[in-house]
Amino acid sequence: MGDCAGGMIAALIALPYGLSMAALMGLPPILGVVTSIMTAPITAIFGRNPVLIGGTASVTVPFIAAAVQSQGIGGAAKVTMVASVLMMVFCVLRLGRYAAMVPPTVVAGFSAGIGAIMVISQMHVIFGVHAASATGNNSLAQMFTILGELGHARWAPIVLGSTVMLVAAAVMRWAPRWPAPLIGVALAGIVARLLYMHEPEVGSLHLVLPPFAGFSWTSDDVINVVPKGLMLAFVSSANLLLTSRAVEHFRGKHKHLKRSDADAELGAYGIANLTVGIFGAPMSIGIPARSVANVRCGGTTRVSNLMHGLFLFLLVRMGSGALAHIPMAALAGVTAWMGFCLLDVSAWRRLPKMRFTDATAFLVTAVGVLIVNAVAAVLAGCAIYIGHYLYVRFVRATEAVQGMPGVAGQIAPGK
Description:
The protein is mainly alpha-helical. It has one domain (2-343). Helix content is 69%, strand content 1%. The chain is built from 16 helices and two strands. A two-stranded antiparallel sheet has the order 1-2. Helix 1 (2-25) crosses helix 3, helix 2 packs antiparallel against helix 11 and helix 7 (180-194) packs antiparallel against helix 12. The longest helix is centred in the middle third of the chain and has 33 residues, at 219-251. The protein is globular, with a radius of gyration of 23 Å.
């Protein structure tokens, strides 16, 4: 039951998100849903983290959008297939296990930053205002732009989004084994009907298997496509493994994954992305919102990932069914609530008690995710620990030696 509930709420989150991400890339929106449906069985069978839910992610948008702009859907197929093969190469070379070396505070900062992005990304839907204009990767600028539009906010989407968040929080507090987000969406739908709210709904879509993407390889692709595929593989791999570790943090009592499992995770997603790449569909990597929703609703096994793909398929195929009438503001409330969960209030409460190095790395990573990107933020957080290690290893060691009786005089200049 927990796996079914987790798969259901993950599918509800996946539908609007996948459509919007594919549209941003310049691809047919339905391809964003095809990615989740086709890759879910593969990652569920071959992946090592049973509750990790994958799908189209925003970090892949710049790479695939540039390929689509230059070569159309065929360009997206090329860069996706190159990145997928490279992810499998990373698996064979056992490079994934190095992600386990990232300090826990950096992982916590990464999780908090992603959570804040999820909340900010849904603010315009919940408040019923126009979406913020493109501001690059700076989510803080996007947030301030949305706050400037609050004078035009509408009460209906606020009521629906708030209903989902409040109900989900209450259910998680008093009945943690119940599917909190799913209950919140159901009650928000009832409220919308009782108050005759005519808000935008999920609606029905026409799902068909896309044709193979037509493309041909040229000598110029070695220079143009392969480097972009390498960068896409690196960014996707880093985000996938960090998301997997962040999800493990929210599983609580479950055992942590082994280092070798990170390598297998890369291989599983490499195979999965290769199967969708031939259709020109975007890549799939771990999605924090869906994965944490899966955990919060009771998902514990690989079945939850399979249910995610199955429910997403049924959601699109049902057409005029009840699921097609779910208000978009209710789904925005689910994503925002998951973002608040990823913010991990307990980590912020421990911040004053942390060592200066740990607190700095946490804050730099969290803020860096908001204003730059996840990979650069994690590298900056790790750089703080490297700098601290070098300082202790060389500067403090030298000072300690110089302060030893009988040694200072021996190494003093001119002696």
